[in-house]
Amino acid sequence: MPYIKRNDELELFYKDWGRKDAQAIFFHHGWPLSADDWDNQLLFFLNKGYRVIASDRRGHGRSSQIDTGHDMDHYADDVAHIVSELNLENVIHVGHSAGGGQIVRYVAKHGPEKTAKIVLIGAVPPLMVQTEANPNGLPKETFDGFQVQLATNRAHFFKELPSGPFYGYNTAPETTDEAVIQNWWRQAMMGGAKAQYDGIVAFSQTDFTNDLKGIDLPCLIMHGDADQVVPYKTSSVLAHDLVKNSVLKIYEGLSHGMPTINHDIINADILTFIEH
């Protein structure tokens, strides 16, 4: 399997499919999953002639289960390293949930020169946690509870999330797809508990406000109005206001997991954005 070495402790797993001279699309997964969460998109855009890339974040999936650096700055540095090692230019970055935050921090920290466009799907920016400056955010106790559940019984916690709010199966049980739940659980359990524990703080308490203000690239922001994990009114709506050159699409009735269970809609809209 292909790996890119960052240092003696960290190797990053990645997929890189398609012609190396084709337009590159780099997919960034959400917490606590892996590059496998993009399999549908990888195949779809590969068949459209694109070069498709996805990596497992440090500590997640098949990447090294290192115990340090589980924060957005290190995630951004890892992305920059992969972009450099693969000699990528003019990249379209697509990120879901925490992966959207990873993209925003990458562009803010390493510059927009190698980036063509950005797609944020159910993404966490500008800030998830409730603060004095962000009174409509989610209470810190919510995320503290995630950490307690992960540390107490990770396997159970990672069964409850996809069975319920992640895909909206708790509000529409008749749509439940057990294979989707099992695949989510499989990906999550591949990763390291320490990375996932620390990652809860990374995705919930990182403030991306200034990062977003500095972005002037074409940006498509997509969010379901039935998202129970990342509320759209306190994330994507605000992100759209901060990013100068952005388009916001809110999808009625779609959940946080819409790239998987509504891939036909999501893929078509990303393709339109890329090609126009």
Describe this structure in words.
The protein is of the alpha/beta class and 276 residues long. It is built from ten helices and eight strands. An eight-stranded mixed β-sheet has the order 1-2-4-3-5-6-7-8, sandwiched between helices. α2 (72-85) packs across α3 (98-110) and α4 crosses α6 (193-205). The longest helix is centred in the middle third of the chain and has 24 residues, at 140-163. The model has no long low-confidence stretch (mean pLDDT 97).
Give the key terms.
single chain, 276 residues, alpha/beta, Rossmann fold, 10 helices, 8 strands, 16% strand, peroxidase, AB_hydrolase_1, peroxidase activity, AB_hydrolase_fold, AB_hydrolase
In short:
The chain is an alpha/beta fold and 276 residues long. It is 41% helix and 16% strand. It is built from ten helices and eight strands.
